[in-house]
Amino acid sequence: MSPSKIICVGRNYADHARELGNEIPVAPLIFLKPPSSVIASGDAIVLPRASQRVEYEGEIGVVIGTRAYRVDESRAATCVRGVVAVNDVTARDLQKADGQWTRAKGFDTFCPLGAEGAAPKTLDELEVITRLNGMERQRATATQMVFSVPRLIAYISSIMTLFPGDVIATGTPAGVGALVPGDVVEVEITGTSRVTNPVRAED
Ligand code: ZN
Known about the structure:
This protein is mainly beta. The chain has helices at residues 14-19, 92-98, 102-106, 149-157, and strands at 6-10, 29-33, 38-39, 45-47, 54-56, 58-64, 80-87, 90-91, 111-112, 117-118, 127-132, 135-141, 167-169, 177-178, 184-189, 193-201. The strands form 4 sheets. It has a 6-stranded mixed sheet with strand order 2-1-13-6-7-10. The mean pLDDT is 96.
């Protein structure tokens, strides 16, 4: 996949906001990952020397199907073309050090994306599961989001035009944790999309 942009949502599950000691935002908290961070299933996540603490974040990704600007929330679901498993890989130490998140979230290989699957009839049915070395670490459904997918599309499209193929990573639930060389991490949107990646240190 080659989205023109990847728009991510921070702290969109109350339990994850709490586990990192953060308040639940009053409006969606958004940031971007660069298209250069995208890798496919099977490609390695490379841990940069600049960070001592890189973590996985399994997320439900929605793929935009139509050019969208200032879309009303009631019509926003019609803009969704498909669903994709996303791993919003994050250098947690650099995120804390920098205050803004471009470096922590933007390294090459920090955005594994699964193959695109069909969107379900009801977006609330979406479920994300993260497994680290075969052990389940995260599981949540879209009903647990602070801001729903239609609300996110309405909010983001009030700021920037969304293009076909753009990906919205809708936030990670509780259970984030560190990646070390030799790990294999998998994010699955149940029955729809899956991305599995080995982890290695930078050469
Ligand atoms: Zn995230």
